[in-house]
Amino acid sequence: MKRLLLLALTGAIALAAPTDLVAQMTLEEKLGQLQQRLTDEPATVALVRAGRVGSTLSVLGAARCNRLQRVAVEESRLKIPLLFGFDVIHGYRTIFPVPLGEAASWDPAMAELSASVAAREAYAAGLRWTFAPMVDVARDPRWGRVVEGAGEDPVLVSAMARARVRGFQGTDYSQPGRVVACAKHFVAYGAVEAGRDYNSTDVSERTLREVYLPPFKTAVDAGVGTLMSAFTDLGGVPGSANVFTLDEVLRREWKFDGFVVSDYSSVEELIHHGIAADGAEAAELGLNAGVDMEMVSENYNQHGAALLAAGKVTPEQIEASVRRILLVKQRAGLWERPYTEEGLADRWFLSADHRKAARRVAVSSMVLLRNERNRLPIPAQASTIALLGPLADSKVDLLGSWEADGKAADVVTVREGIQRRLGAAGKVLYAPGPRLDLVQKADYTVLVVGEPARWSGEARSRSDLSLPADQVRLIQAVHATRKPYCVVLMNGRPLVLGWVAENCPALLEAWYPGTEGGNAVADVLFGDQNPGGKLPMTFPRVLGQVPIYYNHKATGRSNLPPDHTFASKYLDVSNEPQFPFGYGLSYTTFELSNLKVAPGQVEVTLTNTGLRAGDEVVQVYLHDVAASVTRPVKELKAFQRVTLGPGQQQRLTFPLGPEQLALWDRSMHWRVEPGVFTVTVGTSSEGGLTGEFRI
Ligand code: NOJ
């Protein structure tokens, strides 16, 4: 009570804390703020007491966080609160679809909703900082971390980045139920060569500016509190030593005033990259580049004093880093509210509202890839369902990678979801493997296949993206019975589906749909909900096409027919993907009409021409016909997910201003170059209505 009163009285002073404090800090205390430690083991507690820790990476639970916070706030000399961080990627206890799935909703409102629920639960667990969103554009599905991002397109990734920053932070992240966000991994981590995690990247400044940087810029403009520097090197300079990206672009051009945390021991990794001879040099490089906080490795603390004494870093640099960290702590309201109410978790975790939100977002993330002869939804009269496949009753796989405190026991499996939907009158005949007798006994068969969740995520790159052979055999055996069936896919990356994509009558991409995944799958399979998601990443035909992405360049051979001897092509496969970026079907049909294109604006009418309500995502693509530098064949510039009842119509307007028309020109500046632009408005990156205008 006394403490609360004191805080109330000193509110104004607390707000001035960071600047005042720096002057009072010893060098050890300053370096302490730059250190993030993993856990709350006794060594950490002692260091916190000595004012030598700024943050933790995986101390979880309100009681545990409060215990350690008490040491910082009541026992350390300057009483600077700790910032408790953790990887809260797609939910904390209530798990939402993996971010790639969420991006397939093409609905920023869904991403904001999921991040806001994740923030509430993380807050209840004592946390104040999440290492999300990952905003790395990714064009190579071999990279296991594509599951954590929003896919291959900078505009879609940016829209999701903005929504997720808002969802985590709200408009004021000092408010209870909000956490500081962290845009990562700065920058171009998604460009790892050959899709192998942690591998080298080498990207031209133009591609960096046009493809990899924009989502970070969007996150900064949305007020993201922190950024994380990437493990990877970019054109020879690792993310945690990169003066160009961190200082020139992030701080000087973009005026970012939050702080940068290194990725896990990535300051130390400067030694392994071979650009630092030892820990002292690694610390020197990190500090000089402007990496403010060192995650886990301790080179700043071990060598900071010697580096200062030798004049290799300046006191002003260290103080600037401390100030940035204290500023974010202040904005997080840590002086006003250092502790977390311990009963919150019981009230908030897995609340009915949170489960409802998870189910809604999961439904919105699903993409209907095929639906020949309307095999889906499952006919109402089907009461006995055969349910086959290794993922049909899995709990743990539905959580996907980075499940935070998500528990398998909380998950509704597809088997449970379908059984619930059928009710007591219906029957689910389940087997994980090839029990064809069940298919014979059932009215309809559902196969749930894909990759186990542990096949995607960090350090989980793969060189083969096909479905496991036994799963394909299972599908083929069911197919051969000629009985009605559909396939539900669970995976965290584009797959090479081959025969399955060509032959299965109905194919639903469900990603890893989270805690309410089984209910959401049942909602869609039985037509209670109409799928409206679209692919956020291209699905290749064969692995040899990778990297394959819709916004590629035309090449000097784009005038030749695709089968011309000297066309830019393969001898053994077409250039076309299996399923293009932006693609997805619905149980209803839509039509676009009356396209009106003018400089500054595009208008089009969308009509639901089918018999059910449904969602369509209208996508606006632009092409600058003749420019000073080669341009992608098309670039997504705007999109909107729209819900329409049967027969309903809506006129949509999209802005196409200088921001959308500009390119990074030959002299390395953003510029709108006069000339002709073509516009394609469609429901996928392939096809659509076209028009043009001249600037
Ligand atoms: C390494 C990962 O690259 C990063 O995304 C994550 O936030 C940190 N580990 C902390 O777990």
Give the helix/strand layout.
Blueprint: H1 2-9, H2 11-15, H3 17-24, H4 27-33, E1 35-37, H5 42-49, E2 55-56, H6 62-75, E3 83-86, H7 99-104, H8 108-124, E4 129-130, H9 154-169, E5 182-186, H10 205-212, H11 214-221, E6 226-229, E7 233-234, E8 237-238, H12 243-253, E9 259-262, H13 269-273, H14 279-289, E10 294-295, H15 299-309, H16 315-331, H17 344-348, H18 352-365, E11 367-371, E12 384-388, H19 396-399, H20 414-422, E13 427-431, H21 436-441, E14 444-450, H22 469-480, E15 485-490, H23 499-503, E16 506-509, H24 517-525, E17 590-598, E18 600-608, E19 614-624, E20 635-644, E21 649-656, H25 658-661, E22 663-664, E23 670-671, E24 676-682, E25 689-694
Parallel strand pairs: 1-2, 1-10, 2-3, 3-4, 5-6, 6-9, 12-13, 12-14, 14-15, 15-16
Antiparallel strand pairs: 7-8, 11-16, 17-18, 18-21, 19-20, 19-24, 22-23, 24-25
Helix pairs in contact: 3-16, 4-15, 8-9, 8-18, 9-11, 14-15, 18-24, 20-24
The structure holds 1-deoxynojirimycin (NOJ).
Describe the structure using short key phrases.
globular, 33% helix, 695 residues, disordered N terminus, alpha/beta
Which sheet architecture does the biggest sheet show? 6 strands, mixed
* Cross-sheet strand order for the largest sheet: 11-16-15-14-12-13
Structural class: alpha/beta
Taking Cα atoms only, what radius of gyration do you get, to the nearest Å? 26 Å
Strand content: 15-25%
Q: How many strands appear in the DSSP assignment?
A: 25
Ligand identities: 1-deoxynojirimycin
Report the span from N to C terminus. Answer: 66 Å
In round numbers, the mean pLDDT is 96
Name the shape in a single word. Answer: globular
Q: Low-confidence runs (pLDDT<50, min 5 residues)?
A: 1-16
Separate helix tally: 25
Percent of residues in helices: 25-40%
